[in-house]
Amino acid sequence: MAKLVTGVVFARIEDEEYEGMAHVWVRDAEDAYWFSLSRAVEADNIQLMVSDQLTHECEVLSASLEPTRLCVRVDSSAARSLDGHLEYTIAFHPESDSFDAIAGTLGVIFRGKEGLVLAPQT
What we know:
The chain has 122 residues and is mainly beta. It contains two helices and ten strands, in the order E-E-E-E-E-E-E-E-H-E-H-E. Strands 1-9-8-7-10 form a five-stranded mixed sheet, with helices on one face. The longest helix has 11 residues, at 99-109.
């Protein structure tokens, strides 16, 4: 089951508000749904937060970044502990941070891990 989230995407390689963690987040204003991927500097796992505060520490997940969207897939264990979705598609609002900023932040979040695919910009 997939969840579509549409909104302005923000990306911070070192988010001062969150103790320097790498952080990508979006809020879908239509249904007040939050989605974020983050990783603390010393953390081994990636934290996925959905639906405003349901969190899961992911050892494995996959993300595919395209110029206008980000698709994230989780395993069934993560889906069960979150809101039941195996896939999240984040559609970028035109005012989102740049592709390069999002790609750079995802690179930090996925450091030392497999699962990140960056599509070429067109």
